[in-house]
Amino acid sequence: MDCRLGCGACCIAPSISSPIPGMPNGKPAGTRCVQLNDDNLCKLFGQPERPKVCGQFQPCPDVCGSTDQQALANITELESSTLQ
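Now predict its structure.
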């Protein structure tokens, strides 16, 4: 599965513990990454400063669903289940 351009759910819903340019302590779950542009596209895509965890994310139907809203809900649920 390819990412849906402009979705951005994987850059909003999960926490990221590694440094991100502009977010040196990573980002908490539910916080929009500062590297998302107004079209929800990553400004670091393909750049060496992009966090490794972001580059390793592989979209799949179970996580991403069929809409951007489903992806956000699914990733939010997965994130909250890791805190329990």
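Residues 47 and 55 are 10 Å apart (CA to CA).
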